[in-house]
Design a protein that fits this description.
121 residues, mainly alpha, Rossmann fold, 45% helix, globular, 10% strand, single chain
Length: 121
């Protein structure tokens, strides 16, 4: 979570108008499934933070499945893989370029690449 919070803050600080993050958007009593579904529908891009834990998490797998289906259907880039730590990528992500945030000293360079993808200059 600290990495995701930092990244969200940096994206907002650089002019990304909205960065959906579960803990910032889901309130006590909300339906997790409904709120995540709503967030994914409202989002142009779905960034997936890849780590040893996340690639095996059922929620992440479901969200990636929805996002990849949307990408296939629309023919547009939707899924933005962000490598947080070295791990075995799921097969369907192996052919995609990813931002490698696993090296802390390259954080700013990867952030710049991500901002370029988001068309933020």
């Amino acid at each position: 979570k600290p990495f995701v919070r930092r990244l969200r803050g940096d994206l907002l600080a650089h002019g990304v108008p909205r960065v959906w993050l579960d803990e910032a958007e889901i309130d006590i009593g909300d339906s997790l499934i409904a709120k995540i579904d709503e967030g994914m529908k409202l989002s142009r891009y779905i960034a997936v933070v890849l780590s040893k834990k996340s690639i095996d998490a059922p929620w992440v797998k479901k969200e990636l499945d929805v996002a990849m289906n949307r990408e296939i259907t629309s023919g547009e880039v939707v899924v933005l893989p962000l490598l947080y730590e070295p791990c075995d990528l799921p097969e369907f992500l192996k052919g995609k370029m990813y931002a490698d945030f696993s090296k802390p000293d390259e954080y700013e360079a990867m952030l710049a690449k991500l901002l370029r993808r988001l068309r933020i200059t």
